[in-house]
Amino acid sequence: MRHHALASIVAVALLLVPAGAATKDDLLAADKAFSDLSVAKGPHAAFLTFMTDDVRLYDGTHPPLLGKKAVEEYYANVERNDPTYPNVRLEWTPLEAEASPDGMLGWTRGTWIWSQKKPDGTSAKATGYYVTGWRRQPDGSYKFDFDIGGADPH
């Protein structure tokens, strides 16, 4: 009797989780791929690739950027006015994730390291933390719809 009850509970539980629902591992993998692209192609390219059109971007150094178009304009301005931008490296390590029961939404949390070689040959470095909100796309991939970061004290 116990075997049948346990089998029934497992069957019901499996029915409650939609097929293909996100797992924490799926979100951690998406965030890791996002960081890997930042290292390979630069942070702006990575952010633009992984963000939704209605993104909310909060990095603490300016008012929130609302929408991908605003982010594109902001990044273009930075790249136009900062000749050292190509020497920027931003990478992060996702430490924790959580997904909604239906797999449509989730978040990741982790730490980041920013470094930049200056024209005089010296380096600058900063570290911090972030929370990124993810939304499942129609093709099953994940893009982020908000990102909030803060810097560690110097």
What is shown here, in short?
The protein has 4 helices and 6 strands. By secondary structure, it is an alpha+beta fold. It has one domain (21-151): Nuclear Transport Factor 2, Chain: A.
The gyration radius over C-alpha positions equals: 19 Å
Average the pLDDT over all residues and give the rounded result: 88
The best one-word shape is globular
Q: Based on helices, strands and strand pairing, what is the structural class?
A: alpha+beta
CATH architecture grouping: Roll
Overall CATH class? Alpha Beta
The count of domains is 1
Number of strands: 6
- State which percent range the strand residues make up: 35-45%
Give the SSE string. Answer: HHHEEHEEEE
CATH topology: Nuclear Transport Factor 2, Chain: A
Figure out the total of helices.
Answer: 4
Distance linking N and C termini: 62 Å
**Percent of residues in helical segments?**
25-40%
Question: How are strands sequenced across the largest beta sheet?
Answer: 2-1-6-5-4-3
The main pleated sheet reads as:
6 strands, mixed
Poorly predicted regions:
1-20
Description:
By secondary structure, the protein is of the alpha+beta class. Helices cover 36% and strands 38% of the residues. The chain has helices at residues 2-16, 24-41, 43-50, 68-81; strands spanning 51-58, 65-66, 88-99, 105-117, 123-136, 142-151. It has a six-stranded mixed sheet with strand order 2-1-6-5-4-3, with helices on one face. A hairpin with a 6-residue loop joins strand 1 and strand 2. The longest helix is centred in the N-terminal third of the chain and has 18 residues, at 24-41.
